[in-house]
Design a protein that fits this description.
Elements lengths: L1 H4 L2 E6 L6 E5 L1 H18 L5 E6 L5 H16 L3 E7 L8 H14 L4 E10 L2 E8 L1
Parallel strand pairs: 3-4
Antiparallel strand pairs: 1-2, 4-6, 5-6
């Protein structure tokens, strides 16, 4: 029947009993599947991790500017890594850094969840936030 119609006999699901076959143009089927896969790839959102760098003794206005940037990143659907860098004798006052990161966590609680709690790695303290 397929040869008479000038088409291909395509096995749709070989595991069924009896196996399911269709008479159709194999080239058109492959093309349609390729188009469908390309459309699915186009629609998916790639989540980026944006980084905000701060220092423990950041001024209030600078902090507010950084918070605006964090909010903008969340609106775009990206994750944010907040990095706090300690320089010189600032390492003696790590509690100031922890307090600052907890303040960031508190300020973004409505729109973000903490993915990685603040932790110290060398001279940097990091925390990862993801949008809700």
């Amino acid at each position: 029947m397929a040869e008479e119609a000038g088409l291909d006999l395509v096995e749709i699901s070989p595991n069924n009993d009896p196996p399911v076959c269709k008479i159709l143009d194999l080239g058109k089927l492959k093309y349609a599947n390729q188009k469908k896969a390309a459309e699915a790839r186009k629609k998916q959102k790639i989540v980026e991790i944006k980084e905000i760098k701060m220092r423990p003794n950041i001024d209030t206005h600078d902090y507010e500017v950084k918070m605006k940037a964090i909010n903008r990143f969340f609106e775009d659907g990206d994750k944010v890594r907040v990095t706090l860098r300690f320089r010189g004798r600032e390492m003696a006052h790590q509690e100031l850094g922890m307090k600052l990161l907890l303040q960031v966590k508190e300020d973004t609680a409505a729109i973000a969840k903490v993915e990685a709690e603040p932790k110290l790695e060398g001279r940097q303290m990091m925390m990862v936030l993801a949008p809700r």
